[in-house]
Known about the structure:
Blueprint: E1 2-14, E2 19-31, E3 35-39, H1 46-54, E4 61-66, E5 69-70, E6 78-81, H2 93-103, H3 109-121, H4 137-149, E7 155-159, H5 167-183, E8 187-191, H6 195-201, E9 204-209, E10 214-220, H7 223-226, H8 230-234, H9 237-256
Parallel strand pairs: 3-8, 3-9, 6-7, 7-8
Antiparallel strand pairs: 1-2, 1-4, 4-5, 9-10
Helix pairs in contact: 2-3, 2-4, 3-4, 4-5, 6-9
Amino acid sequence: MAILELQDVEKTFFSLETMTTAIENINLTIEKGEFISFIGPSGCGKTTLLSLVSGLILPTKGQIILDGVPIEKPTPETGYMLQQDYLFPWLSIEENILLGLKILDKTSKEEKERPIKLLEQLGLLDKLKNYPYELSGGMRQRVALVRMLSTDPELLLLDEPFSALDYQSKLKLEDLVFSTIRAHKKTAILVTHDIGEAIAMSDRIILLAGRPGRIQNEFIIPKQLSQELPFKVRTSDTFNSLFQKIWKEMESSEESS
Length: 257
């Protein structure tokens, strides 16, 4: 069952002197429960696409449909996680993770219990009364994940959420985010420059190329990989062959652009 449809989507930015088309002719359907990654060279429109899906900006042409409804503004049905956690430093961890519920006026005991329980599952219940500056980068990103999931969105948007972390923390958090998203049966879109990360976490990888950006190719990750934790995926022989295939495709697209 499709949860998200992008139909002939194009985005052009205008200024007093210039007109720049960031993406064009984007047609894509994402099924409920899928984990999709957008990869491609810098400037191909990956983050622009994520901003369009979030409703932060609107397409110049075409439409984006979430659960049968055209996206015309940000919606609680969509959660966003960025490469920086953007936790409010003057709020405690508890206040940070409950902020979305407070904004939506969902303050019942049952609704508050969900993010607290998730924080416990991620090993941070003892940090509930702490402030963001007292936590490591990896811990803060775990809190950002809880904050994103607290309002129970249908679609999760991940914009390079691990890029600011050291490599060991990145690998651990990949497993944690992946398993949490799968356990909650969420649909997710990841934007990343890291081919290995895309292979390790995705059901499907969309390669964007060109300026303006367009879909150049699609890679379906074999079931035996897509159901495994990312760290285990990285150790398989299939991972290496897929990495080489996608790498060569990206190189050829950059040479021809």
